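User: Quick one: structure for sequence A, then sequence B.

Assistant: Sequence A:
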Amino acid sequence: MKSTSLQPEQLSSVSAVATDGPNPRADRIGRGLMALNAVLTLGAFADGVRIMVSAADDRVVVEIWRTFAYVVFAGMWALIAAWPRRVPGVWELVLFQKFAITVYYFALGDVPHAQTAALVDLWLVSTTALAYALCRGWYSWRTVTSSPGSSGQPARTAG
């Protein structure tokens, strides 16, 4: 059996690669938060179905749209939980929408349900931002290459 040994200059590049990714514990916590958000959002979907089926005619279209949007967000959080560094743009889309809607809800003041919705979305934007940092979600942009000869296909990396 042939033994190979790394030269000193190779060792420094190996250690740089090994420490470049997120801490495994931080990664598990971030992924867990995103999985929790996905499950909680499916709970909101179930409640949305209840509201949707009893909605007045002037509210039914809005309730249908809102209810099925829960499935989209649950799916995005599930994708992030499964592949936090392979879904370029998904983190940022979720963070943008949740941040914007949270600010808007707080700005509404005494409008019915605005403060409750603001607190729910504050949880979602906070946990997503924390998970983004823990999982190093910005690394997902490293998986997309536009180099000549890449046939336009994204290059995939671990995570």
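Sequence B:
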Amino acid sequence: MNRRFLLGTLPLLAAAPALAQQLPAIRTLTVAPGPTGTNVTGSLADTKARGLYYVPGQAGQTMNVAVASPGNNVVFQVWEPGTGVKTNADGTLALDGKPMHDAGPTEEPAAWIGALPKTGPYLLIVYSRRDAASYTLTVSVTGQ
């Protein structure tokens, strides 16, 4: 490798802003038809960690989501299909889309039932309000 090139780039690399953190993997859940749905277990290392899931849904169906955790400190959000998601340099998520009514960032539900307005993958974001946590996420989609 050309030493002049490498040495010449060091000041640029040192002055570059911190790169955005890598987005956690987004799992697509296969939800069993009917009211029993699907259970997923997971763990969160701290309050910055996120569990991300896509849940396929059809307009007119009803989605039921619940999360259980020791200490009841895990909550979630549900976002409509088409929501863009990326990670900021500080590790926080940047979302470009519309949260579902009563399941957005200001509500922090542990249980939610809602009618789906669109067909497509709904984004579920699971996170802890306090400390590290394990959780069980239950999702069902019924109707049509």
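The helical segments are 3-15. The beta strands are 26-28, 38-44, 51-57, 62-68, 74-79, 84-87, 93-96, 111-115, 120-128, 133-142.

User: Thanks, that's what I needed.
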